[in-house]
């Protein structure tokens, strides 16, 4: 029996990811019927069913699960190797568009400089992405990669280096009672409305930036929701609530009318580099390596 063709394997992997013949076809620019043909050909070569298909759902069979578990990492490694060799042959060129949230901190800018030095034929463009839509620019292809606030729970995105773990501070108006304290505990957040994030940011991400309960289970009042950090700080100055921010952001956006009070009892805030797994390039991998090196050197 002949070995599977590369197109059959691509069709199977796309179907395993999407669990939908139409979406798998769209990913590979093929018709739904062509995906079905390729799958049947692969099943014939394997000698067993890889996918169960009903009117309501598509799912992998145990045999399909086994094939997917072994095939996916091997296939990705082949594609990555080919891309790296191709890029090495012609050099990493073009433009790398990197998005970032908030302030472009020192590790990020050092990584940009290191990437530019190591890839002189590739231009690096920095694009600010809104607080209210941390992952949208990556999904839409407006940027090649983005530095965003954790957490990241999106199967379509590759989670690259996680860096800049820093304690949180509560930004409050200098008229707020907490402004006179040297620090507060996370349970004290029950006494201050938290300004949240509006827009298309996922709910889990918005709740991480403005939790609704303390670690001990006390309710935290909800303040207004904003689309940008500047809007949020304007409401802080007006006494409409507080915002949880990491130390570097607090230092960068410090204001005479805003006090940043250290908070204990909460996980540290971290940044991460993400990119879409279907749009990975040698450029994104090169920048991820540069950022990882900087993060390791700075601790």
Automatic annotation (TrEMBL):
Annotated Pfam families: HTH_1, LysR_substrate
HTH lysR-type domain location: 4-61
Regions that span the bilayer: none
Keywords: DNA-binding, Transcription, Transcription regulation
Stored InterPro entries: LysR_HTH_N, LysR_subst-bd, WH-like_DNA-bd_sf, WH_DNA-bd_sf
Family, as annotated: Belongs to the LysR transcriptional regulatory family.
Name used for this protein in its record: LysR family transcriptional regulator
